Amino acid sequence: MLERAVCCIVRPYRDEDSDDYAETLLKTWPCEDIREARENVAIAVRRTKENGEEEIWVAQVKAKAVGFMLMGFTRIWGHKGEAFEQEAVGIDWFDVHPDYQHKGIGKELLRKAEERGREKELHRLFMHTAVNNLAMINFASRNGFKFAEYIEEFCGKGTGDAFLLVKEF
Questions:
Q1: Out of 1-5, 15-19, 46-50, which region has the weakest mean confidence (pLDDT)?
Q2: How many whole angstroms separate alpha carbon 38 and alpha carbon 163?
Q3: What span, in angstroms and rounded, lies between the C-alpha atoms of 100 and 117?
Q4: How far out from the chain centre does Cα 82 lie?
Q5: Which among 84, 58, 80, 60 is positioned nearest to 69, based on CA atoms?
Q6: Which helix (H) or strand (E) holds 136?
């Protein structure tokens, strides 16, 4: 049974979103505790400040930030320097609080990624997901992403395998 969509706004990340972001990461990432989730939020925020080509976007329902997307503009899609011929919109961290999944929040974040891509005259989105993350694979497929590459040990020796998923727009 499909759940009903909820209305959200998508806006740039603000410092006051950090607690909601940490709560979401605690439920969607392999974080051991809220301290580790907060450290991961700090990493994402630091990346946007250090690299002007990355942004964090937030999906907000009422006064609560419930979805987060770290994205950047790059040609490089692999950790070994593999690259597209042209720059694309890379979605690196994509998280929706479990209480708000299956309600259109992720789809709205993807729309923002496409909008930002069009503003920069880009025509491709890409993301990676673990090969065993069936929920993300299904979500990406329903939203126009196609399988592009199978990547062994995506984050280095001993780490899990991943898929490169691509959407042309």
A1: 1-5
A2: 27
A3: 25
A4: 20
A5: 58
A6: helix 134-142
